[in-house]
Amino acid sequence: MNWETVRYETGGGVAVITLSRPETYNAFNQQMHRELAEALRRAEKDPGVRAVVITGAGKAFCSGQDLAEVPPDLEFSDLVRRYYNPLSLQIQRLEKPVLAAVNGVAAGAGMSLALACDLRIAHEAAVFTSAFARVGLVPDTGLSYLLPRLVGLGRAMELCLLA
Predict the structure, then answer these.
(1) Segments in 59-152 forming alpha helices (H)
(2) CA 118 to CA 82: how far, in whole Å?
(3) Which sequence spans correspond to the domains of the chain?
């Protein structure tokens, strides 16, 4: 399959999925959601793949949702329900370990993507930010569920509310 927003490579038992919209710091759009889900399905079905790595092209891991590409008639809650919840569950249910190789900013839904993975490895220049408070949104896309389980409720509240 020819993908425009995701690159998929395998070698040594590892599937490397690279989010590839560097001009938007790898922000999610509907096409990226579809392509990432397909890449994860491909990795899951491939018996030669024993682990999956998700990373970002360029200077960012994922800057979250591309707000310029949200259809005007789509509520944020519908966007979360339609795209982010299924993606988070797909990653968590994958029967192979999924590692987030965070090479730069992981903001909003990008941070949620990293949290959904089994392990996170961050470059020294990586930055994690919930970012939702800055744009007046509920800290969701999986973040409000995953973050307290990883860092505790108090620290999660601090990270989400103080952005």
Answers:
(1) 76-79, 85-93, 109-116, 143-151
(2) 22
(3) 6-161
- Torsion-angle region of 100 (φ positive above 0: left; ψ -120 to 50: alpha; else: beta): beta
Position 14, amino acid? V
- CATH architecture of the region 6-161: Alpha-Beta Complex (3.90)
Structure tokens at 140: 């969701």
127-129 sheet: strands from edge to edge:
60-62, 105-107, 127-129
Q: What is the pLDDT of residue 77?
A: 77
Structure tokens at 25: 């710091």
- CA 49, distance to chain mean position in Å, is 20
Map tokens 């790595």 to a residue: 53
What pLDDT digit, counting tens, does each position of 121-131 carry?
999 999 988 76
Q: Report the C-alpha gap between 112 and 71 in whole angstroms.
A: 21
